């Protein structure tokens, strides 16, 4: 609330931070980045890929230093998407807290599963992230991942993969959770989508679609919370120094609202419509991005 009052009080010229890196982050850019983060973080379309492409289209990737600062900014506004899952799945999170306190066996089992899934992701991602970042953080690899993921969704839909009978979330085992965690590391490739990988992994190990989707959201909550907390301790002071308070706060609020809407929409959509829409969207986005690279609108 204080941040909103500050925003109103600031003159328009002060709402744009021009940094030594050449990066100029306006309020409009902050809103767009927050919207993209919130809408894509939990949908099976890859928030990382969308943010990288959005930065290109907004002309924000003006230098290597600007790209690094934008990564820090993106991790900062992830807090909004994290809060969205806390709000939407607050009853399930309360159940896990009860499990921690010894008041819910199902909550304890789910909390244990999430920790088991998170550990291999953290260990493997730390090793692979810098390698992947150096070689495949770019529009063409993102477009390839979008298209391949889209084709995979359509194929899995056709063979009835998402309609498999499976267990409810409360019955998840440690072995299932560990395998989901290992498979989640495939999302290090930008454009792959952590959400997509964990939903497919959940069904593959024996969960039904509803349980796999919910587990994906909850695992995202744990994974993103850890990443944001680490980045906050490591880069928080620099985030405030470079961007101030206003633009990160705007991005966070917009990410929160849009993530709540996206999560609720996705749950309702999958109950009635299925996964096809995400497959077609990914293919269209990948082809569109390759066209933008081909005509020079986006740098390869």
List the helices and strands and how they pair.
Elements: H1 2-9, E1 17-18, E2 24-25, H2 27-40, H3 47-57, H4 64-88, H5 90-100, H6 105-136, H7 139-158, H8 174-184, H9 194-204, H10 209-243, H11 246-272, H12 276-294
Antiparallel strand pairs: 1-2
Structure characterization notes:
Mean pLDDT is 85; it is low at 1-18. The protein is globular. Strands 1-2 form a two-stranded antiparallel ribbon. By secondary structure, the chain is an all-alpha fold. It starts with a helix and ends in a 6-residue tail after the last helix. It has helices at residues 2-9, 27-40, 47-57, 64-88, 90-100, 105-136, 139-158, 174-184, 194-204, 209-243, 246-272, 276-294, and strands at residues 17-18, 24-25. 41% of the residues are buried. Helix 5 packs across helix 6, helix 6 (105-136) crosses helix 10 and helix 9 (194-204) runs antiparallel to helix 10 (209-243). It has one domain (26-294). It contains twelve helices and two strands, in the order H-E-E-H-H-H-H-H-H-H-H-H-H-H. A hairpin with a 5-residue loop joins strand 1 (17-18) and strand 2.
Labels describing this entry:
300 residues; 12 helices; mainly alpha; 75% helix; 2 strands; globular; two-stranded antiparallel sheet
Brief account:
With 300 residues, the chain is mainly alpha-helical.
């Amino acid at each position: 609330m204080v941040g909103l009052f500050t925003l109103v009080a600031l003159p328009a010229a002060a709402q744009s931070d021009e940094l030594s890196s050449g990066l100029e982050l306006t309020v409009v850019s902050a809103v767009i980045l927050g919207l993209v983060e919130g809408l894509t973080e939990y949908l099976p379309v890859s928030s990382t890929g969308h943010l990288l492409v959005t930065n290109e289209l907004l002309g924000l990737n003006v230098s290597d230093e600007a790209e690094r600062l934008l990564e820090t900014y993106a991790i900062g506004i992830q807090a909004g998407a994290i809060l969205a899952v806390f709000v939407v799945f607050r009853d399930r999170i309360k159940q896990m807290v009860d499990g921690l306190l010894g008041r819910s066996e199902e909550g304890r089992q789910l909390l244990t599963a999430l920790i088991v899934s998170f550990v291999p992701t953290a260990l493997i991602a730390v090793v692979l992230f810098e390698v992947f970042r150096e070689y495949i953080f770019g529009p063409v690899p993102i477009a390839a991942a979008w298209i391949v993921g889209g084709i995979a969704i359509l194929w899995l839909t056709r063979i009835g993969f998402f309609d498999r009978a499976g267990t409810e979330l409360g019955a998840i085992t440690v072995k299932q959770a560990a395998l989901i965690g290992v498979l989640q590391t495939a999302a290090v490739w930008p454009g792959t989508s952590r959400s997509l990988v964990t939903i497919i992994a959940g069904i593959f190990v024996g969960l039904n679609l509803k349980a796999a989707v919910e587990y994906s959201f909850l695992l995202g909550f744990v994974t993103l919370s850890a990443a944001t907390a680490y980045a906050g301790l490591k880069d928080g002071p620099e985030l405030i120094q470079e961007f101030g308070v206003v633009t990160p706060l705007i991005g966070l609020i917009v990410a929160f609202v849009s993530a709540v809407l996206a999560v609720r929409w996705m749950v309702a959509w999958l109950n009635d419509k299925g996964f096809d829409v995400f497959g077609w969207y990914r293919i269209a986005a990948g082809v569109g991005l390759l066209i933008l690279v081909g005509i020079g609108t986006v740098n390869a």
